[in-house]
Amino acid sequence: MNTITDPGDLPTPAEAPGGLPGWPDEGTERVSLAALRRRLARGAEAEGLLGVAYREVDSPVGRLLLAATERGLVRVAFEREGFEAVLAALAQRITPRVLEAPDRLDAAARELEEYFAGRRRAFTLPLDLALSTGFRRSVQQRLPEIGYGRTMSYRRLAELLDRPTAVRAVGTACATNPLPLVVPCHRVVRSDGGLGGYLGGVEAKGLLLELEQHREAA
Amino acid sequence: MTMMQPFDLAVRTHGATVLRVCRAVLGPGPDAEDAWQETFLSALRSWPDLEDGTNLEAWLVRVAGRRCVDVLRARGRQPVPVEQLPEPVVAATAERLGDAEVWAAVAALPERQRLAIAYHYLGGLPHVQTARLIGGTPEAVRRSAADGLRTLRRTYGAEDGHGRTDGST
């Protein structure tokens, strides 16, 4: 035997049993790991250990990450934000007990799918606004009042909030909306007719407004 | 500083290693899967209090070790039940053996050899830490791992005509 010499050395699992045929196959392991992870998510939920559940879904504006606490949907993220970074931020700001757990997000995934198919105009999901505070939060709370297929300018929104000079702050509140799509910050545009910015990209914003206007007209 | 990383990252990064360890200790099947589940549930419980900078793989393998011991105790018998010892494989020269046969061969090892191999080779724990888990001295654990691996090599080394007796290399 020449493989074990130093009690402190750490052979990697892959090289350790060198020369042994038939060492467990990675492929079959991956399959059962997926099943084990689903079971773990359910076990964690049952024991109240699932702080933040997340799942990914496909959409016309790219892949989305959905995350929920026990109180409700807490984050919707676009792929360009970097899902790993989004999960790390959730761990920092809410709890590190973050697990992929699709079940808790079934309703959110379904409502979003209906929205993109043009069959849903308002979301009825419970929301957890833990990620927004102060003025940003009060801006974000007003956004659902802008009707489906409508738009409002940053300036007008500032006036409605009795802060007519806070146009920039309103813009920032929209840009940092932790729940895009569901909280419709895409309906806020510039007074000069420009779209303004969007966390999911200006193209995505245009696409959403087009979808809604098309449906509204239909 | 306590742990602020998403727990999910630990599952994705170390889930496979922990599963290999559980299977080596308990045999493939429901017991190993239960132990995997219990390992990650109890890790999730203590996760927010864990010291940042902990060696996660070693920590998880130690947790898995304790959960596996629980399962072994609960079953009230020590060695893994192996219905039949692996038969010498005759025609498997080029073909890979099925998982089941390898695990059966691992399971057929004396318990201390099996645990030493599981924690050191599959779980990446230094022999010193394995010794803390299963008792005995690090030197004895190192010998058990070496003996077990030699037995496994013999089991598979001799069947295809390319076998070599130990020490001839």
Structure description:
The complex is a heterodimer of chains A (218) and B (169). Chain A is of the alpha/beta class. Chain A is built from seven helices and six strands; from the N terminus they run αβββαβααβααβα. In chain A, a hairpin with a 4-residue loop joins strand 2 (64-68) and strand 3. Residues 1-22 of chain A have low confidence and may be disordered. Chain B is an all-alpha fold and 169 residues long. Helices cover 63% and strands 0% of the residues of chain B. Chain B contains seven helices and no strands. Chain B has helices spanning 7-26, 30-46, 56-75, 99-107, 111-122, 127-134, 138-157. The model of chain B is unreliable at 78-98 and 158-169 (pLDDT under 50). The chains are: A alpha/beta (218), B mainly alpha (169). At the A-B interface, helix 1, helix 2 and strand 4 of A face helix 1, helix 2, helix 4, helix 5 and helix 7 of B.
Order of helices and strands of chain B: HHHHHHH
Q: Mean of the pLDDT scores of chain B? A: 77
Q: Percent helix among the residues of chain A? A: 25-40%
Give the amount of beta strand of chain A, in percent: 5-15%
Could you give the order of strands across the largest sheet of chain A? 3-2-1-4
Ends distance of chain A: 77 Å
Order of helices and strands of chain A: HEEEHEHHEHHEH
- Would you report the number of β strands of chain B? 0
Low-confidence stretches of chain A: 1-22
Major sheet details of chain B: none
Label the structural class of chain A: alpha/beta
* Total DSSP E strands of chain A: 6
- Shape category of chain A: globular
